[in-house]
Amino acid sequence: MKFGIIGGIGPASTVDYYSGIVSQYLAARDSYPELLIESIDMNRMLSYLEEGKESDVVSMMVSAIADLKAAGARYAAIASNTPHILYKEILCRSSLPLLSIVEETGRFIAARQWRKVLFLGTAFSMRKRLYDETLNSCGIRVITPAEDDIREIHGIIFPNLENGLVIQEDKRRMISIAERYIRAENVDGVILGCTEIPLMIQPADLSVPVADTARIHVESIVRVLLAEEGKTEFESEYCKVSYLPESSSVLLSWKRYADFENYRRPTRFALGLFSAHPGSRFVIDARNGFEDDAADVEWGFTYLLPEIAKTGCREVFVIRKESDVEIAAEMDMWTRELSKYFRVENVTHFDNLA
After folding, report:
1. What does CATH list as the number for 103-215?
2. How is the chain split into domains, by residue range?
3. Rg, Å, the chain Cα set
């Protein structure tokens, strides 16, 4: 599988992403990963952010993702924290599944049972409280520096550190700011929430552990690369996806209500199965419930269904309860949309499949 990286934001950390992915993959497989890098103009992106042109940043990222897809990528990641302030908007328009640096870092921190963390990053990320939503949902408090410190940290990152240049006096200033908050807030760890900060700050430099977002992201990318190779089944607490060779079908079985990544990850995996097995039938088991968030519905209508249709799928079977009043309107809406691309049949059991 080819994995796409949106890089150049900044160039120095993009080099670390590439070398890190290659070395870890090589250690696991004794072979080299297929990687594509779309290096974008960081100055243009920063100008858009400074001018408040967030929609232009989103368009810039979506265009880069489209380029990666055209080159053969099946998955992608943005090798930078700052663009993730617009992650939801980018994901809604993305033509590829994306691996979020924020979500992966959140899992890393939650697994270590940290309860309070200090977040260091660019001014854009800190002012937008980039990690608050993800970590607060896990009961983790995020400490963001005061405005004066935000400006100082941003000045340390740009332009020198962003270009890979580590100034020792800047490093001392960064450590001093971090340690002041570590003592005052009694935090459990520090998020190095700009992918260039680890070029300057090492774990031993601070008195508490760090979450190196670049390293966490790289390790997650390698896991995806290794997991997706030849995989024909996906299962989570929300859904099970499998390929049924005896009927040339991709089966999507919902277990419970899911939204955002809990919804999109299994459906993207299903799309990968369709790509690997062109012309397969699509079987959706909705007997245990089926309901969608509005944003997921839009994503499904504008991205998922057209992409499945491109693989040659022509038939969709929806397995429903004989009485599903609670979700009837939802299912009818999906049936209408599915019918624009496929022949759709509602059935009550697997045995009813034609």
Report:
1. 3.40.50.1860
2. 2-98, 103-215, 232-352
3. 22
CB 65 within 8 Å of CB 4:
yes
The reply to whether 103-215 and 232-352 are identical in fold is: no
Domain 2-98 coded CATH 3.40.50.1860: yes
Contact in structure between 6 and 67 (CB atoms under 8 Å): no
* pLDDT by position in tens, the chain (length 354): 899 999 999 999 999 999 999 999 998 888 899 999 999 999 999 999 999 999 999 999 999 999 999 999 989 999 999 999 999 999 989 989 899 999 999 999 999 999 999 999 999 999 999 999 999 999 999 999 999 999 999 999 999 998 889 999 999 999 999 999 999 999 999 999 999 999 999 999 999 999 999 999 999 999 888 877 767 788 999 999 999 988 899 999 999 888 888 888 888 888 878 877 889 999 999 888 665 678 888 888 888 898 899 889 999 999 988 776 666 777 788 889 999 999 999 888 776 565
Q: Using the Cα atoms of residue 212, residue 218, residue 220 and residue 222 in order, give the sign of their dihedral.
A: negative
Domain 232-352: CATH superfamily is STAS domain (3.30.750.24)
DSSP state of 287: T
> Any alpha helices (H) in 143-259, and if so which ranges?
147-157, 168-185, 197-200, 213-228
DSSP 174: H
Helices (H), 237-291: 261-276
